[in-house]
Amino acid sequence: MTDRLQKVMANAGVASRRASEKLIVAGRVRVNGKVVTELGVKVNGEDAVEVDGHLIPQKNAKVYFILYKPRGVISAAKDDKNRKVVTDFFADLPQRIYPVGRLDYDTSGLVLMTNDGDLANKLMHPSYHVNKTYVAKVEGIPDSHDLERLRHGVSLDKKHRSSAAKAKILSTDTKKNTAVVSLTIHEGRYHQVKKMFLAVKHPVKKLKRETYGFLNLDGLTSGDFRELSNQEVTLLKQMVEKK
């Protein structure tokens, strides 16, 4: 969808349309790095519009964020029970964004947020094999046989079996009879990680997603978010363009 440049500026709250036209004619507006002085120019949500060197937000612009989701937050745009949802953290954003996939209510960790529906659909499709690493605190201490089962795949239900995964023990607590285990998978079935550990008789007590592809939570604490860099967005798109 394209709109006249002055309309986009007005919608972004820069100035009225007439005042925006004066800014354009005065050479104070750049589109994709180039000065624009003509009033008939049209732009879309992917164009970078700057006024006096400041990038203006566009409602149709594609945006990409990492959110460190706390426990007790729903991975959805809204909830019929009025519980806190991941989009509540982005209430001031002009764009309407959504989570890529889901994390359980009681699971914390990395959630990718965007309004780029095409990229989101590709990232969620299992054929693209986007690795996701979880750290789980489980009951009991898995032995080498349990880890091998996780690595080679276990039955999730009567119809589905998990694919090959990476699993390793990070720490153990013999007094409390618990262990912290890292598990890397590329699928995203409902309650998959919990079902995998349940299959080897080590129920999950606490779960956190630490990575999504090459993305991680470095520098973030629970409830924080940051925008992805242009390089990170490019790498994400390259991940799903290889197929």
From TrEMBL:
Record bears the keyword Thylakoid: no
Q: Which domain of life is it from?
A: Bacteria
PROSITE patterns in alphabetical order? PSI_RSU, S4
According to its UniProt record, this protein's enzyme class is isomerase
- Parts forming coiled coils: none
TM spans, by residue? none
Xref: InterPro entries: PsdUridine_s_RsuA/RluB/E/F_cat, PsdUridine_synth_cat_dom_sf, PsdUridine_synth_RsuA/RluA, PsdUridine_synth_RsuA/RluB/E/F, PsdUridine_synth_RsuA/RluB_CS, RsuA_PseudoU_synthase, S4_RNA-bd, S4_RNA-bd_sf
Q: Where is the RNA-binding S4 domain?
A: 3-62
Signal peptide coordinates: none
The answer, when asked if RNA-binding is one of the entry's keywords, is: yes
The catalytic activity of this protein is classed by the Enzyme Commission as 5.4.99.-
For this UniProt record, the keywords arranged alphabetically read as follows: Isomerase, RNA-binding
| Family, as annotated | Belongs to the pseudouridine synthase RsuA family.
Name under which the protein is recorded: Pseudouridine synthase
